[in-house]
Amino acid sequence: MSQLAGRVGVIMGGCSAERDVSLRSGEAVFAALRARGYDAVRVELPADPEFAASTISDAHIDVAFLALHGRLGEDGCVQGLCELLRIPYTGSGVLTSALAMDKLKSKELFRLHNVPTPPYYTVTAEDDLADIETMHGSFGFPVIVKPRGEGSSIGVRKVDNIVELVRAIEAALELDEVALVERFVAGIEVNVGILDGRPLGAIEIVPKGGLYDYAAKYTPGMTEYFMPARIGSTRYRGVLNLADRAARALGCTGPCRVDLLVTHGENEYVLEVNTLPGMTETSLLPKIAASAGYDFTSLCEAILEGARLHAPVRRDPARKRQASGAFAPNGLRLAKLA
Question: Which of 10, 64, 80, 269 is most buried, by CB atoms within 10 Å?
Answer without folding.
Answer: 10
